[in-house]
Amino acid sequence: MLNTQISWQCYIKSRILSHLRFDVRIKKSPFARDTVNCSKNYIYNFICTENITGTESIRSIIRTRRNENDFNINIKYKNFYINKKYRHLWIQCQNCFGLNYKKFLRSKMNICEHCGYHLQISSSDRIALLIDRGTWNPMDQDMVPTDSINFQQRYKKRIDSCQRKTGLTEAVQTGIGQLNGILVAIGVMDFKFFGGSMGSVVGEKITRLIEYAANRSLPLVIVCTSGGARMQEGGLGLMQMAKISSASHDYQSNKKLFYVSILTSPTTGGVVASFGMLGDIIIVEPKAYVAFAGKRVIQQTLKRAISDNSQMSEYLFRKGLFDKIVPRNLLKGVLGELFQLHGFLPLKRKIRKMKKFKKMKLKR
Asked: What pTM did the predictor assign?
């Protein structure tokens, strides 16, 4: 109903301010006349706090544009964080440190409204963005990780806590669904579960997905976000790299099928070294952090500084490492075009073609 950008921003500002006033029960405020001052002082005094460590005196500045009808909050330093009481309402951008209202952020696909940075998104939300509604059929949901090498009791407790927080059994969801009517096999990793690390269950689920897609001649999509192989499983975690790569080789070389790899931020370690970089088409999100080893590890090993942008998607794209940089809101359309270009048609068009082919045979 709100057509223009200005009216939409005014609507958002009024809704946020009314919600905040109701939440804290501010009845009479000395700065209630000016909505800009109200939002500024309210956020500074109630939502945000300063974190000062040691002898450092770090100042955090909030600037609001009074002449424009927007709600831009520019936070200067990383040490400026949201108070625990209001973390259920706001999310801070990792790039510009601006505040994003949670209720509106999900509808914007977790893209920062201030700078356009792509914030982390759960695997369930990612599936909802890519797969048509009502067509998702999950696979291997009952597979649960175990402490096979008797690493530590803390490992079991951490797995249990990750399962309770995320509602997932492991760091990847696999299944079959329709993308713009095209039946695809898709696996989506979740960084919130143990840092998206690749253990034996993750490797087994992805391998089974690839084999299922090969047997039924389906296109394959894997969305990667990971910290690498899971060290708590030792050699079993590292073996998954070769295991998945072997299944991918059979899928791509022997079956001649189409695999799209999507790298999101962050994607590091064994996932990059194996199936992450084996796609026929490799797509990456804007400003994504993609690396085999972290910046700190490289600097400690080489004893020299490296630039901040050397492991960002834009820099690596210019070096020829990826095929496309695609924003999250355009990803589904791009994937649909790629699949149709490689001969994978929507199910309805496929059925029509089959019927026409049968009629042609009967006439002959």
From this structure: 0.75
